[in-house]
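Our consortium's second objective concerns turning raw sequence data into structural hypotheses that experimental partners can test. To show how far this objective has progressed, the report includes one record in full. It was chosen at random from the queue rather than selected for favorable results. The single chain below, 205 residues long, was entered without modification.
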Amino acid sequence: MELNGLRVSRETQERLRHFAELFTKWAKAINLVAPSTMGDMWSRHIADSAQIFQISPRPQTWIDLGSGGGFPGVITAIFLTEQQQGWVHLVESNNKKAAFLRTAMRETGARGEVHPVRIEDAPIAIATCDAISARALADLDKLIEYAAPWMVGKENNRAYFHKGRDYRREIQKAHGRWTFDLLEHDSAVERDSVILEISNLQRLV
């Protein structure tokens, strides 16, 4: 099996399929993603989330902000399982979604844990990380504000944010409060979408 050209082992493939089954079951009871996107979950959500690991495949410690239905945090945690290294801290304040995430992590054997706290309170529970991810959560300026406690003054840390076609306006807005280095990775799944890689974050105001 391949996702975006990434060769996926049989074990990882089985974990991803089990996650997809759990997701479909739970999504009937709680709102994990927009119902209109359920039909193409593998391309719209799983393959899209897998791009994070493709860009940064090192076994490192991640924080996934607003994990919701598990994209991309659970997908990253499943890929890390094959490496037997690395860890994903999933931050989700909604108790029902956090319960789903705990079930998904436990049943897939993914490498990570769920923190049912508000993002603003997460730095108390999670002191350090190497990388941060978020998908369909907030505009870039707000995402950077969320990530700042783990990134400002830490030149080796990176943040990876999925963004749609309006991302250039969001970058311009964010530059009003922050300076940062930026790499734009074209999405292999969504036309006109990107994954923004941010580093060397500093606050202006």
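The partners drew two points from this record. The beta strands are 2-3, 6-7, 61-65, 87-91, 112-115, 131-134, 158-163, 178-186, 194-203. The helical segments are 10-27, 41-55, 73-83, 95-108, 122-125, 140-151, 167-174. Both points have been shared with the crystallography group to help prioritize constructs.
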